Amino acid sequence: MSEKQTRQAAIKELIGAQMIPNQETLVELLLAKGIKATQTTLSRDLNELGIWKGPEGYVLGNEATPVRATKNELKKVLQSLLVSAEVASSLVVLKTQPGRAQAIGYELDNIKLPLVVGNISGDDTVFIATRSEEDAMQLKHELENMI
């Protein structure tokens, strides 16, 4: 096995066996196995392996079926990560703590709220598309009420 294959196998094993909240923890766990890796290399490996970061940490994307979100899970993520919400025409723009937007976007995708057409999540911003300004205002109020 090549160094890359060994490292990627170890990554999958570690993520499959325990909750890993961030890359720093993953670097430490790999080092404990005698595998050195930079965060840049890990980012590339995680992408190649289809591993994504959910609200609780890394998840094996191709091998684990995502659990359908509930309003309670969305509420928990919003309470812990949401900084602000603003309506911009038919969009609701959510600001989060740095690096946390994808967790909210993931929960929104899985809960399939009727007012949500779709969302795009960046590092600290989620753009949620609705069908109208009225829908955007209603969605903003629904999300704020969850908090």
UniProtKB/TrEMBL annotation:
Q: Report the InterPro entries cross-referenced here.
A: Arg_repress, Arg_repress_C, Arg_repress_C_sf, Arg_repress_DNA-bd, WH-like_DNA-bd_sf, WH_DNA-bd_sf
Residues of the Arginine repressor DNA-binding domain: 3-55
Reading the lineage from the top rank, the first entry is: Bacteria
Output the Gene Ontology terms for molecular function: arginine binding; DNA binding; DNA-binding transcription factor activity
Under the heading Pfam families, the entry gives: Arg_repressor, Arg_repressor_C
Q: Which SUPFAM superfamilies match?
A: C-terminal domain of arginine repressor, Winged helix' DNA-binding domain
Gene3D superfamilies in the record? 3.30.1360.40, Winged helix-like DNA-binding domain superfamily/Winged helix DNA-binding domain (1.10.10.10)
**Which PANTHER family does UniProt cross-reference here?**
ARGININE REPRESSOR (PTHR34471:SF1)
Kindly provide the name given to this protein in its UniProt entry: Arginine repressor
Q: Please report the organism this UniProt entry assigns to the protein.
A: Pleionea litopenaei
